């Protein structure tokens, strides 16, 4: 099955990334998860084991934000940057979760940078 082979590859890459990228209270880790339809972002303090904030392409009613998947990822990036600002965070460590840095992952990062996050 091709799906499990791809997933195992992504998980191996993610483990390599996680050996380097660590989140602290002052500079949390911006972790990204991408499903086939949605995208999720979290600000994580690995030292204390806390999730500082989250943003997702789902609305409170469970529906998706309108637009293409890349446009929705851009909006999630802007949302997570706003969450970071409200918590007094200016810089983060970007954890792409083993995904290639293009498409939705790149769009999320661009949205977060445009909204004022530094990484």
Assess the beta-strand content as a share of residues: 15-25%
Let me know the number of strands: 4
- Write the H/E string, N to C: HEEEHEH
What Rg do the Cα atoms give?
14 Å
Poorly predicted tracts of residues? none
Helix segment tally: 3
Structural description of this entry:
The chain has three helices and four strands, in the order H-E-E-E-H-E-H. A hairpin with a 4-residue loop joins strand 2 and strand 3. The protein has a four-stranded mixed β-sheet with strand order 3-2-1-4. The chain has helices spanning 2-20, 69-86, 104-114, and strands at 29-34, 39-45, 50-56, 93-95. The mean pLDDT is 94. It is of the alpha+beta class. Helix 2 packs parallel to helix 3. The chain has a single domain (2-114), classed as 2-Layer Sandwich (Nucleotidyltransferase, domain 5).
Fold blueprint:
Blueprint: H1 2-20, E1 29-34, E2 39-45, E3 50-56, H2 69-86, E4 93-95, H3 104-114
Parallel strand pairs: 1-4
Antiparallel strand pairs: 1-2, 2-3
Comma- or semicolon-separated keywords:
19% strand, 4 strands, 4-stranded mixed sheet, Nucleotidyltransferase, domain 5, 40% helix, 119 residues, alpha+beta
């Amino acid at each position: 099955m091709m799906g499990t082979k791809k997933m195992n590859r992504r998980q191996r890459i993610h483990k390599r990334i996680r050996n380097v990228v660590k989140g602290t209270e002052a500079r949390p880790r911006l972790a990204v998860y991408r499903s086939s339809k949605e995208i999720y972002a979290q600000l994580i303090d690995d030292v204390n084991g806390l999730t500082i904030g989250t943003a997702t392409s789902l609305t409170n009613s469970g529906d998706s934000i309108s637009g293409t998947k890349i446009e929705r990822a851009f909006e999630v990036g802007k949302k997570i940057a706003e969450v970071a600002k409200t918590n007094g965070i200016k810089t983060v460590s970007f954890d792409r979760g083993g995904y290639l840095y293009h498409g939705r992952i790149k769009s999320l990062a661009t949205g977060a940078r445009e909204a004022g996050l530094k990484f």
